[in-house]
Design goal:
Adenoviral Proteinase, Chain; 5 helices; 6 strands; about 20% strand
Length: about 170
């Protein structure tokens, strides 16, 4: 599955359909695979160089070829991450993010990788589609917090609900 291309396509569709809800810069980086030793560090460095100022970076991460998780980085400035979220959609997952968190701290010393509650499923084979959905939902929520913080008008209605999100995903 080409998760980063699917994620990018869905994000573009949402940005076109809901331009005011996705008005800040959001970038999807190429997926990281845990069997590539330097992949995560490379994406973290790429995230620093991608765009400037306030922005959101979405990174799909593959574990052992089948299990997908999502990582969202919200940059406050060019080099400062305000929020780093890890989203594991597999219920009862035994994935440990310690290595990811440690490597994140090497490049961004003041940043902690935090778990965030997301939709989950027991079937690891569903993790790619749920990760896409979770990353897009999180990106929208971050957009709303940007707007709240600036005093701009925003809607409490979110783009996503189960029906809409389900129709946006490719199985």
């Amino acid at each position: 599955m080409d998760i980063d291309n699917i994620l990018s396509t869905r994000l573009e569709e949402l940005q076109q359909k809901f331009p005011t809800r996705f008005s800040k810069s959001i970038y999807v980086l190429k997926a990281v695979h845990d069997n590539v030793p330097t992949g995560w560090k490379e994406r973290l460095i790429e995230a620093r160089r991608k765009g400037n100022g306030q922005r959101v970076i979405l990174i799909p991460y593959n574990i052992e070829g089948l299990h997908w998780i999502g990582i969202l980085l919200k940059f406050e400035t060019d080099r400062k991450i305000e929020l780093a979220q890890l989203m594991d959609p597999v219920e009862y997952s035994d994935f440990s993010p310690e290595k990811l968190g440690n490597e994140l701290k090497e490049i961004y010393p003041d940043t902690l990788l935090r778990w965030t509650y997301v939709e989950k499923h027991r079937d690891v084979q569903q993790s790619a589609s749920i990760t896409i959905k979770n990353l897009l939902k999180a990106a929208e929520e971050v957009q709303l917090t940007y707007e709240r913080g600036t005093g701009m008008r925003y809607s409490n209605d979110q783009t996503f609900n189960d029906q809409i999100a389900g129709s946006l995903l490719i199985e």
